[in-house]
Amino acid sequence: MGGIKKREAPAKFEPGFLKNMDRRTEAARLLRERYFDLADDLGGIETLSGIKAGLLEQFVFLEHTLSRFASDMAATEDPAVYAAIQGRWTQAVNAYSGIATKLGLEKVAKEIDLKAYVAGKIG
Fold first, then answer.
1. Domain positions in the chain
2. Which of 14, 52, 89, 119 has the smallest CB count inside 10 Å?
3. Cα–Cα distance measured from residue 27 to residue 85, given in angstroms and rounded to the nearest whole number
4. pLDDT digits over 38-75, tens only?
5. Is the pLDDT of residue 2 over 70?
6. DSSP per-residue string spanning 57-112
7. What is this structure's pTM?
8. Of 93, 90, 39, nearest to 62 (Cα)?
């Protein structure tokens, strides 16, 4: 059936990783919250194409990965390990920046349904 849900984000990106995480965990809640907050910034989840939704999932994963790399760099005292992590961090920043450019860097206003607004369901 559904299988076992993951408690943490995977080490490597897997499409659908947010759906495969145990929603009861803090990690899943934070990542899903970030995904939907950013989707709102892009005009709402319902306005995203499948491609943009996939890019957004990769963006959230990279954000999480960058945070993990920063923690790993702060925790190590070995210059070689630091340099290796920093190289991976730099590559991830470049990918993150590229996806941000594709998604758009500006907030997009949500379209509001006039009937729902008048009925008091919105705003």
1. 26-118
2. 119
3. 22
4. 999 999 999 999 999 999 999 999 999 999 999 999 99
5. no
6. HHHHHHHHHHHHHHHHHHH---HHHHHHHHHHHHHHHHHHHHHHHHH-SS--PPP-
7. 0.83
8. 93
